[in-house]
Amino acid sequence: MAVAVSMADATRRFTSEPRKLLIGGEWRDSVSGKTFETYDPATGAVLATVAEGDKQDVELAVAAARKALDGPWAKLNPSERGRIVHRIGDLIMEHAEELAELETLDNGKPKGVALAADVPLAADLFWYMAGWATKLNGGTINPSVPYMPGAEFHAYTLREPVGVVGQIIPWNFPLLMAAWKLGPALTTGCTVVLKPAEQTPLSALRLAELIQEAGVPDGVVNVIPGFGETAGAALAQHPGVDKVAFTGSTEVGKLIAQQATGNLKRVSLELGGKSPNIVFSDADVDAAIAGAAQGIFFNQGEVCSAGSRLYVQEDQFDRVVEGLTSAAQSIRVGHGLDPDTEMGPLVSQEQFDRVTRYLSIGEQEGNRATAGGSAIDGEGWFVQPTVLVDAKPEHTIVQEEVFGPVIAAMPFSDVDDLARQANDSHYGLAAGVWTRDISKAHKLAKRIKAGTVHVNSYHVFSAELPFGGYKQSGWGREMGEEVLNNYMETKSVIVGL
Ligand code: ADP
Ligand code: MG
Description:
By secondary structure, the protein is of the alpha/beta class.
């Protein structure tokens, strides 16, 4: 996979110096002095050295965030706060090339994808949230109090920032996940301690510099790169943190919920998925094939809402599998900075081991690969885009989240049976329905227990659309107006007249 790749000077500058923690507006080494390395997953080579935050650094960062909650940040009027949040979006777009390259080098994804999706979606999230800063209104209420006959009241609600927020994010969309988390926290006037994933801390650190440049006061955003079991757990447990927001695996989401019980901090969780993508015979089958391919192979399949279970009505099953197989085989896999690359490597050795383990379990359980099925030899953590058939509902590949470019295709005949199978999962994050029958599409959209249902589309993300999961896919929603509720307390004020 070795290719001569070119990158911007700014990117080289950022990766060539050791990166630090951001606490109270200052870039500093960790208290322990420890550092860790991140890797270019396309080569396995060391990319950058980063200060390793731990419990003691989390202490300092939480204290800085607490102090900032009552500082100049609280005194800004909503319009001023909104304009600062908007400026973060502008700065992201001004540095799009550099951010996309950092994302590609740290995560592996193709630069074209980062430039088309990750970076503009991150900017747009800040632009969208900025508009909410001036619209976080409470209401005027006329209370009925049966045991106080004749009493009159003037009552209203205030919406106040929840306070200090701990945010723990994953490695699949490092910049975008930072944006999803920071945008609503800043717009509502909270202060933040953000812990990026240990695999991919770079773009969040660069974003933090842009956030400083945008005029966010010191201590409002603190960034502590480090590991989950140390820095992450310290943040989730910290009694000085009012709310924790987590995106990652369902397994760790359960730990976060437990860690949060000490002070009953508010918790929002955006977790795993095993999303069904459903193709009816009356669909535009070619569009459905392209949508199924994009639904699983986008971002190397490292997407919580990936359409990893494909259900195809039986008379079109062979045609769809054939189309998907040739789509998978034609994907150009390579280094993300190579402009010809359509799919990059998996993010890490650990993720490579996880995905290849699922491929061998699939083989043992009798799943047959019509495309791919194995790792790609040579340097870097590459696996082949894989289509599996002969999959039964109880098979591991149908039940468990692979988080890689691996799809299980299964035929179905009857809609009721299909709806049962689609909902036969601990997860409930997303789904896709491909049909020309609008009545069937809307009926099924109601029956599927998932936070997002796509009809004749897949992987449509937008700052305006709430995103999150039913069942073990999480608690609460990201984005849209809904996410704001995660970051605010509502206070009723009652005045006796
Ligand atoms: P993966 O296993 O795919 O890396 P994780 O859910 O483990 O996904 O990681 C998502 C985020 O959660 C990362 O920032 C990681 O450091 C963090 N994390 C992992 N384990 C813990 C934990 N025990 N407590 C808090 N955060 C954690
Ligand atoms: Mg993990």
